Amino acid sequence: NPTTMRSGIRPLFCCLVVIGFGAPPLVCTAQAQEASAQLPPRLPYSCSNCVWWSDDELRSLLKKQIPALSDEIPTTSIAEGRIRTALRLLLKEKGITAEVQSEEPSSFALTAARAEGSPPPAIAFIIASPRILVEKVMISNAPSDLQNSLLEVLRNQEGSAYNKGQDWLARARVAENLETNGYLDSHIDISHSPPRRDGPDYVVDLLVAVIPGPQYRIAQLTADGGPLLPGRDLSQLFAQRPGDIAGASPFGRLPAELRAYYEQHGFADVEIAAPPVLDKQHALVSYHLSVTPGPMYRLRSLTIQHLDPDQEKRARDLLGIKPGDIYDEMAIDGLFQKVPLDPLLAGYTFGFSPKKNKITATVDLTLDFSKGGDKSSVTIR
């Protein structure tokens, strides 16, 4: 859980596990003090499962109880405690004896790029007891041939705790399913039914209203391989063709293969883009894939930590790049595969920290080795 849960006492900061696409699992640890130091002085606040009120209704009720309350609160235990107390009193008026907790964003959520559609950092208050659960997921107005697959995408929500803060994720899953089937201009609203008592718990239904829009077909697919592949015909690598129903990945593996190719040649900042251009009147879509390579980086320095001299020499040989060479990010992926098989390094793992200087187009790379299971991390600056 990439948040710190609080009910009056601030616990230690959690460990955050991040899985990177195309890379080994990475573990990023942080000190509680460092995380708190990175919190801004004030943040918006919300209640993740106060299903008896809308956001506006709840905010209005809280402002009546707490003089001078604004739409943001200080990131302090005292300020959060006032909100928790006010929420407990509001619930007590409904005959509900509740335990209310609060959770603050982690330093990762504040500093790293968040997933598209995810809410901005906020202090979320949550009713920990009684439980508020999702009983059923109900989807309306979806294309009939996708109704079952959309329900299946959200089936794991049923029986789980309701959390409005995760609505964006449900919306993204439904949108992805629709886009894979050609519905590129859909709109999805997520709400919940009024709460119902179910023994000691309360339940709501998750209501997913879909406006799918038209089903698009591909009008045109083109690709420019950039300066390393000038004029190259890449069409044989496309996953789809003009006339096909638009899918989520019309170029198939081509973007990933182009990225890997450019990174092998030192273009660590390469950007691959293929935004859809919609002709809404005719329900047609065109794609043009382009490559923006950015600067070509060279390795300026390589620091290897926590190995003896023989092991360090072996790690440098296995990496295959040395200071002055073109910086190849794929070499690090290769090193992850080679280390467990090497007699000198068997049982070791490593974290890596590439520090890029965009002005000089150079990289200072640090490999931090440890016995397997001790730690594995990545820091990119």
Provide a descriptive summary of the structure in words.
This protein has 381 residues and is an alpha+beta fold. The protein has nine helices and 18 strands. A five-stranded mixed beta sheet has the order 1-6-7-4-5. Strands 8, 9, 10 and 11 form a four-stranded mixed beta sheet that branches. β17 and β18 (362-371) form a beta hairpin. The longest helix has 17 residues, at 77-93.
Number of strands: 18
Number of helices, counting only DSSP H or I runs of 4 residues or more: 9
Helical content (DSSP H or I, runs of 4+) = 10-25%
Low-confidence stretches: 6-37, 375-381
Write down the secondary-structure element order: EEEHEHEHEHEEHHEEEEHEEEEHHEE
**End-to-end CA span:** 24 Å
Principal-axes shape call: globular
Class by helix and strand content?
Answer: alpha+beta
Instruction: List the quaternary state of the chains.
Output: single chain
Give Rg in angstroms: 26 Å
Mean pLDDT: 87
> What percent of residues are in strands?
25-35%
Features:
four-stranded mixed beta sheet, alpha+beta, disordered C terminus, 381 residues
Note the topology.
Elements: E1 3-6, E2 16-18, E3 26-28, H1 32-38, E4 42-47, H2 55-65, E5 72-74, H3 77-93, E6 99-105, H4 107-111, E7 123-129, E8 132-140, H5 147-153, H6 167-180, E9 187-192, E10 196-198, E11 201-211, E12 217-223, H7 254-264, E13 271-273, E14 276-279, E15 284-292, E16 298-305, H8 309-319, H9 329-338, E17 348-357, E18 362-371
Can you summarize this structure?
Helix content is 24%, strand content 30%. The chain is α+β, with helices and mostly antiparallel strands. The radius of gyration is 26 Å and the shape is globular.
